[in-house]
Amino acid sequence: MQDALKSRSSSISPRFDTRGSVLHFVRGSVSHFARQKVLEKNARHALTAFTQDVIQEGVDKRHETPAAAGNFLKTMKGMFSWAKKMRLVKVDPTVGVEPPGYKTDGFPAWTVDDVKAFRGKHAIGTPERLAMELMLLAGLRRSDVVLVGRQHINGCILSIDTMKTGARVTVELSDEMLKVIEATPRRGLHLVENAHGKPFTKESFGNWFRVKCTEADVTKSAHGLRKLSATLAAEGGAATHQLLAQYGWSNIATAEIYTKGVDRKRLGIEASRIVADQIGNIEIPHPNSGEGLSAKNAGKTMPKK
């Protein structure tokens, strides 16, 4: 979290001095001491540094003290309620952050319907459409999608050392993906650029992409696309080692979250078919002779003697 909060521009404290107090927005839900502690600790940070990922991380690292986690989240919600009213931010990054005290699977995965909705709103040729398609096909994190450029593509092969783990991931770009890349204007090497033709930071990208999701009525984050990508790969038959290679994971347990889920679904369907077959073999009394008749043949007429 600290790495994401290094920016000092547009820090919180000067804003409070010139635009009014944020305390009004959190009064009544958080104790004065807890509120002051959170605000003072983060007073020098830029508002734009607080993405959904950063706030979720702040909640998660306080998991051993749920009350502190709750105070942190409530204070952040109050702060950004104030910031939106003062038009200092366009997006409230606290929306979608999981509250403390509940077991969660992290950020919710996108659905196929979410992808359809996003595609319906954002046409090919826009940077947001390109970003979404890259994250879906290649499973790139936001920290990588802001870095990927022409220099990482050789023919139809994209290869990049991931920012988070340093692992190299190599994927094949489909013909459709290559067409989306070619259709998207850019000024430099980076595939995804901001409105000024400059590369995004991962924080600014996260906020920008959330706005684009909201415009398409999608309530998920960029990370949720990576989850859908891995789910589609597993459902399509990708093995654990293949998932490790594409998504740059080093922990086999992470890949098995997806493969085991698919295996459970497949095995459950297979088991239900076995049960159905066994039910079909249960004998029921014949209405005339009393002899056993299997359920499969219950509707058949017995030959006359």
TrEMBL record:
GO molecular function: DNA binding
Name the record gives this protein: Tyrosine-type recombinase/integrase
Annotated coiled-coil segments of the chain: none
One Pfam family hit: Phage_integrase
Similarity section: Belongs to the 'phage' integrase family.
Domain Tyr recombinase: 105-272
Lineage of producing organism: Bacteria, Pseudomonadati, Pseudomonadota, Alphaproteobacteria, Hyphomicrobiales
Entry-linked SUPFAM superfamilies: DNA breaking-rejoining enzymes (SSF56349)
Region of interest (Disordered), residue spans: 285-305
The entry's keywords: DNA integration, DNA recombination
One BP annotation, GO: DNA recombination
